[in-house]
Specification:
Largest sheet: 5 strands, mixed
Domain Tc1-like transposase DDE: 2-125
InterPro entries: RNaseH_sf (IPR036397), Tc1-like_DDE_dom (IPR038717)
Strand order of the largest sheet: 2-1-5-3-4
CATH architecture: 2-Layer Sandwich
GO molecular function: nucleic acid binding
CATH topology: Nucleotidyltransferase, domain 5
Number of helices: 5
Number of domains: 1
CATH class: Alpha Beta
Transmembrane segments: 140-157
Keywords: Membrane, Transmembrane, Transmembrane helix
Number of strands: 5
Distance between the termini: 30 Å
Length: 158
Amino acid sequence: MRTGAQPEILTMGQRNTLKIFGTIERHSARFLYHFRAVFNAETYIVYLERILQCYFPQKVYMIQDNTSYHKDRDSWGWFADHRRHIEVYKLPAYSAQFNTRERIWYHTRLLGTHNRYFVSQEELRVVLTSKFRSIQKKTVSGYGLFASISIIIVSLYL
């Protein structure tokens, strides 16, 4: 393709997305993620329970954005019931610069999904899993993705 030419990407004319929950650990840049069929308070709570299992008996301090299921009554009820194990803080509204998920998603799109056609969701899932695993293997200095993080754990959705 010549420089400046618009790329032509095949498409089926439908939006075929995957829902992914994830967290990033502040000190080690450990990246945990989980594919789900939908984003809602119920699936978010299931994901939170997985996080607690990964870190038990340590207490988790989580900073999350303002997605609707983060603010749901059921989610906050769950946080209240588990406050011995998890403490949650909200990012200010419209503060993408503080949300680490933006860097991960940028990296994933740039090196994995940008200007590519995926025949199936499974093919997309394989590519995303591969990119996420490469992120998990890199150190903070290796990628620079997390160089300016000043938080402990960030909730992520893609």
